[in-house]
Design brief:
Elements (H helix, E strand, L loop, with lengths): L1 E6 L11 H4 L4 H11 L4 E6 L3 H11 L5 E5 L8 H9 L4 E5 L21 E4 L4 H12 L2
Parallel strand pairs: 1-2, 1-3, 3-4, 4-5
Helix pairs in contact: 3-4
C-alpha cells in the first residue's frame, strides 16, 4: 500500500522546536521507526514550509497513492486552498496534529482541513501518525 506522509510548516524543526509541546524526537528518526513498524507499506515523505508546494504534493499523490497522512501545521487554521485541494483529490487523507489543537489558542480551534479529511487525530504526539497509518492499512 502506497502511503504519503506530508508535513507542513515548521515540522522540519521537530526535536528542537518547543519540545514541551512537540516532543524531543526528530521526524527523520520517527519516520525510520514507522517504516520498520509497517514493512508492507510503501512510504513517501514530503515536508514544506510553503503552502503552494503542499498543494502541489497533495495533487501529485492524491490520485496515485492509497492513503495520505497530512499534518498541515499552521496552515490548518488559515488555508482554504489546502482544504480545497483535499476535497479535489480521491485519496483518503487523515489529518494529524502532534499537539491537541483544541486545547491551545482559540485560533487553532478553526480548521479548513478537517471537514475535507477522512478523519482527524490530534494531541497524541507522533503516535498519531502511526495510528493514521494503521487505520489506512486496515480500512481497505
Amino acid at each position: 500500500m502506497k502511503i504519503a506522509i506530508i508535513n507542513g510548516p515548521n515540522l522540519n524543526l521537530l526535536g528542537t522546536r518547543e519540545v514541551d509541546v512537540y516532543g524531543g524526537e526528530n521526524f527523520d528518526t520517527f519516520f525510520e521507526e514507522l517504516k520498520t513498524k509497517f514493512p508492507t507499506a510503501e512510504f513517501s515523505f514530503f515536508q514544506s514550509n510553503v503552502e503552494g508546494e503542499l498543494i502541489n504534493e497533495l495533487q501529485r499523490v492524491g490520485y496515485t497513492d492509497e492513503g495520505i497522512v497530512f499534518n498541515p501545521g499552521g496552515y490548518t487554521h488559515t488555508s482554504v486552498a489546502i482544504g480545497d485541494a483535499i476535497a479535489a483529490i480521491i485519496t483518503p487523507v487523515i489529518e494529524v496534529h502532534i499537539s491537541n489543537i483544541l486545547g491551545r489558542e482559540e485560533f487553532r480551534k478553526i480548521s479548513h482541513v478537517s471537514a475535507k479529511a477522512k478523519g482527524v487525530i490530534s494531541g497524541l504526539g507522533l503516535k498519531g501518525y502511526e495510528l493514521a497509518v494503521e487505520w489506512l492499512m486496515t480500512s481497505k
